[in-house]
Design goal:
This protein is an alpha/beta fold and 532 residues long. It is built from 15 helices and eleven strands.
C-alpha cells in the first residue's frame, strides 16, 4: 500500500525545487539551497521528452515558489486592503511571474533538443553560456516589462551571502547567471553518474570561470573600496519611527515628542545628515507645507545636522487647476528645500492603469492616485522611495547623474508583522555593489541600516541580532561620499548596465527562432523547387 501511494504521488516530487528555492530567501534564508534548487529542473530539460510536460512542471514550480515567497501580501488586509482583491492579486502576480519559469523551461528544452546528438562542444556551450544567459535575460525582462517586477532575482541570494562582487560588472543578473551555472554543473555531475553523459570538462570549466570572475571582480571592488575611504566623510543619523500606515486618532501620539526622544540618542554625535523614512511627514501635512519645514528646522536645530531627508506627499496645481499628488522626498537645509518625486510608481497601489485618462478609476487607488515625477538628484544624494530600490536600472541612472551616495526610504508598515521588510532590504543590498556608492536605508517598520560599496551591511538590530522591524530606534554611522568627479569611483555596471547580457540573450532568442522556423521554410522551398 505504501509503495502504491508513493507511485501515485511521486509526481509531487517535481515541486521540491520550488520548496528549496523558496527556502533560499527570507524568512528561512537558507542561502545555500539556491546552489542546487534548480538542478532537478535542469535535468528535466536536458532529457528527451514531451515539451508540454516540461513547461507545465516549470510553471508549477514557479507558481508555488512565487505564491510562497509573496505570502506576505495578505498582511495588507489588516490595513484596509479588501481581502478578495488581495487574494486575487497574490494569485495573479504569482501566476504572471511563473510564466517566466515556464518560458525558461520552453527555451531551455528547445535548445537542448537542438543540441542533442550534435558535437560535444555544442553541449558544453549550452551548459556554460546558454542556460545562465537565458535565465538572466528573462529576469531582466521581468524587471522591465509592463513597469517591471524586480523582486527576488536569484542573484540577491549571492549578494546577501557575501558573494556579490561580480555585480559590479553585470549587476545582480550576472550573479543569477553564476547560480544557474552552478546548478547546471551539479546537473552535469548527476548525468555522468546516472546517465553516462557529458565529461569532467563540464565541471572543471564552470569552476574555473567562477573562480576567475570572483578573483577579477574582487580586486576591482577592493580598489574602489580604497577610493571610497578617501572620500568626504558624512555622519548620518537614521531614524526609524515605526508609525502606523493608517493613523488611529484615538491612539495618536505627539510626533514632536516621539522624535525628540529618538533624536536625543544621536544629538551629541552631531550628524551631518538626518534621514527619516517614506511618509514620515504625513503627520505634519505635505513635505512642501509650512509644518513640514518647521519640523525639519527643529530636527536640524536639535541634532546640529546641516541636512534632513524625509518622505511624504507633495501637491501642486495641475491642468485645469486640478491638484497633482506626488509621493515625494524632500531635502531640507538652512537655505533651500529640494524635492524628488517618485518615478517608479506601484501599479494598483499608487495608481490604477489609465486612471489619468479615466479619472473615475483614481478612486480605486488605495493610497490615492499619484503622478510620476522626473528622475533627479537631491543635492549630493540619489534618492529612491519604497519599491524603487529594487530597480537596478533607475539606481544606475542616479549614479550616472553624479550621486555621491544613495538614500533609500521606505514605508513597510503596510505589511507589518510579515517577512516582506527583510525581503525588501535584500533587494537594495545589490545596489551598493552595482554602483560603488554607499547606501543609507531607512524603513518605517522596515529594515534600517547602512550598506558599504562592497555590499557589507550594518543593520539596526534588536537584542536577537535581527533587523529592528517591530520596534522604533535610531542608528548613527559614518559613510564616505564619492568624489565630486565621481566617475573613477563608480562600478563598471554604471556604464555597462544590462546591455551586454540582454544583447546576448536577444541573439540566442533570434537564433532559436531562425533554427525553429526558417529551416523548415527553406527545406519546403527546396522540395518544391525539386518537384518543379
Amino acid at each position: 500500500m505504501i509503495l502504491r501511494l508513493v507511485e501515485k504521488y511521486a509526481c509531487l516530487l517535481w515541486l521540491v525545487p520550488a520548496l528549496l528555492l523558496w527556502a533560499a530567501f527570507p524568512p528561512l534564508a537558507e542561502k545555500v539551497d539556491a546552489l542546487f534548487a534548480l538542478a532537478p529542473l535542469l535535468w528535466l530539460v536536458r532529457r528527451p521528452g514531451a515539451m508540454r510536460r516540461v513547461v507545465i512542471i516549470w510553471f508549477l514550480n514557479g507558481f508555488c515558489f512565487w505564491l510562497a515567497t509573496l505570502s506576505w501580501m495578505p498582511a495588507i488586509v489588516k490595513n484596509g486592503g479588501p481581502w478578495p482583491l488581495v487574494a486575487l492579486g497574490l494569485v495573479a502576480l504569482s501566476a504572471y511571474c511563473a510564466l517566466y519559469f515556464a518560458a525558461y523551461g520552453f527555451l531551455a528544452k528547445s535548445m537542448w533538443d537542438f543540441v542533442r546528438g550534435r558535437s560535444y562542444w555544442f553541449r558544453l556551450f549550452a551548459v556554460v553560456v546558454v542556460e545562465p544567459v537565458l535565465w538572466a535575460g528573462l529576469e531582466i525582462v521581468r524587471s522591465r516589462f509592463l513597469g517591471g517586477f524586480a523582486w527576488n532575482q536569484l542573484g540577491t541570494v549571492a549578494v546577501n551571502a557575501g558573494f556579490g562582487a561580480p555585480a559590479a560588472f553585470g549587476g545582480v543578473y550576472i550573479l543569477s547567471m553564476v547560480i544557474v551555472l552552478i546548478n547546471g554543473t551539479i546537473t552535469g555531475v548527476a548525468e555522468r553518474i546516472f546517465r553516462k553523459g557529458g565529461t569532467a570538462l563540464e565541471t572543471l570549466l564552470p569552476l574555473v570561470i567562477v573562480y576567475a570572475l570572483y578573483s577579477f571582480s574582487g580586486e576591482d571592488v577592493a580598489m574602489r573600496w580604497k577610493r571610497y575611504f578617501n572620500g568626504e566623510e558624512c555622519k548620518v543619523a537614521l531614524v526609524q519611527r515605526n508609525f502606523p500606515c493608517v493613523f488611529d486618532e484615538s491612539a495618536a501620539e505627539n510626533p514632536d515628542e516621539v522624535y525628540s526622544n529618538l533624536l536625543g540618542n544621536v544629538s551629541l554625535l552631531m550628524p551631518d545628515l538626518v534621514v527619516l523614512p517614506e511618509s514620515a511627514m504625513a503627520e505634519f501635512g505635505r513635505v512642501n507645507g509650512a509644518n513640514a519645514h518647521i519640523f525639519a528646522e527643529n530636527v536640524r536645530r536639535q541634532t546640529g545636522a546641516t541636512e534632513v531627508i524625509a518622505g511624504g506627499t507633495r501637491v501642486e496645481r495641475g491642468d485645469n487647476w486640478l491638484p497633482k499628488v506626488y509621493n515625494s522626498a524632500a531635502l531640507y537645509t538652512e537655505d533651500r528645500t529640494l524635492f524628488y518625486d517618485k518615478v517608479h510608481l506601484v501599479p494598483f497601489g499608487e495608481f490604477i492603469p489609465f486612471d489619468k485618462t479615466f479619472p473615475a478609476l483614481q478612486r480605486l487607488a488605495p493610497v490615492g492616485s499619484c503622478w510620476p515625477g522626473e528622475l533627479k538628484l537631491l543635492g549630493d544624494y540619489g534618492v529612491a522611495i519604497c519599491y524603487e530600490d529594487t530597480d537596478s536600472a533607475q539606481i544606475r541612472r542616479l549614479a550616472e547623474k553624479g550621486a555621491r551616495a544613495l538614500v533609500f526610504i521606505t514605508n513597510d508598515s503596510w505589511f507589518g508583522g510579515s517577512h516582506e521588510a527583510v525581503q525588501h532590504a535584500w533587494q537594495s543590498t545589490a545596489r551598493a555593489i552595482e554602483t560603488g556608492l554607499a547606501v543609507v536605508r531607512v524603513g518605517n517598520s522596515g529594515v534600517t541600516g547602512v550598506i558599504a560599496p562592497d555590499g557589507a551591511a550594518t543593520w539596526l538590530e534588536n537584542s536577537h541580532s535581527r533587523p529592528l522591524t517591530d520596534m522604533r530606534g535610531t542608528m548613527f554611522d559614518r559613510i564616505f561620499l564619492a568624489p565630486k568627479d565621481g566617475k573613477s569611483a563608480l562600478a563598471p555596471y554604471v556604464t555597462l548596465g544590462d546591455k551586454p547580457i540582454f544583447i546576448v540573450f536577444s541573439l540566442f532568442i533570434l537564433a532559436g527562432f531562425m533554427i525553429k522556423y526558417l529551416k523548415p521554410i527553406r527545406k519546403t522551398k527546396v522540395e518544391e523547387d525539386g518537384i518543379e
